[in-house]
Predict the 3D structure of the following.
Amino acid sequence: MEYYKVAFISLGCAKNLINTEQMMALCRQAGHTVTGDPDGADVAVLNTCGFIGAAKSEAIDNVLELARLKEDGRLKKLLVAGCLSQRYQADIRSELPEVDGMLGTGSYTDVVTAVGELMAGERAEHFGDVNRAYDDGERWVTTPSYTAYLKIAEGCSNGCAFCAIPRIRGRFRSRRMDHLLEEAKMLSKQGVRELIIIAQDITRYGQDLGDGSDLAALLTQLCKLDFHWIRLHYLYPEAVTDELIQVIAKEKKILHYLDIPIQHANNGILKAMRRNITKEALTTLFEKLRTAMPDVVIRTSIICGLPGEGEAEFEELCDFLRVQKLQRVGVFQFSPEEGTLAAGMDNQVEPEVAARRVELVTDLQSWIMDQYNERRLGSCMEVLCEGFDRDEGCYVGRTYADSVGVDGRVLFTAAGEISAGEFVWVRMTGVADGDLTGEIEG
């Protein structure tokens, strides 16, 4: 068997990154040299996102950039994997001749075979059943040594009207709890201090297994391992149970930071989205969470411009945000994705109107976040140090209220040397462009 230099580029979400890490491990096990630099590689594997228009554009830009390396003789073959290839197989074949092969979301484990086929001059295309994708196996963890993701399920069965993920990733499939605990133990032994639990919907973990597994039970077991922080991403509001709230509230390792996508607050729009929840139920849930955890920080995502959203529906959303004062909000413009119910709905909102609404919600949230940061001034908070930033001239880190890559940072000074991955207590003294500043306490 011949061995090759294989470069990996991962786009999109953390769930996609884990698939990239699995492919890297498989190539390394096969004896190939694995790198993150496509310049000079035999094969570049581009793992793509194809969820919304912006992600598709980013993926195509990366394909064209890698194609230029091929033209210059600095890269031999290009293999496109992931959501874009799964969703747009025919378009890639006809419009992007620079692509030498494709892997669908059900065929990540075929990466070694595909590399061999490409280097033998063959066309490599593997599209396995997206509902049977293999989610266990070794990973080559690429995040900083102190932080890692644990993907507990794949796919989604919620059927939101605006979302193409079930078509791309398949139905919701939980991983077995014993496999998850084995992987978590490995990560703990490797020195991971912050474990980030991810899936498209972590709240429904175990419901498909039929063995009594659920998220509350999984979290209880994970808390017995040597992690300092356990962070939760993507809890669907209608599936958050009282038992789960109790577990999150009582387990000291689970951060009081909850990523709960609501998408809207008008009942008509929520129904059109097929979100299976009402504004009143959201209000009740947030009250429960704040009663159980007064320091809870809630992250959510909002879509502006779904078909049927008029000025009254939009203003109701803004009023809800003003009242609830959610500390972390990602705002997105509705994207009419092919094959979704929402793409074919009547009363489409003009893109310019939707974009303006995104701006208005973003401005509103900036005001809410500024208020939140002001309330943190003078307090002493635990911070995970992520290293020294030479441009800023100080250390940078995150509190429990700040997740990787999506929230703010803490810029702080220290008399001594602080290592990345170390937890320190920082007195918050100021705000700079939305980030908090401070100094180490004591």
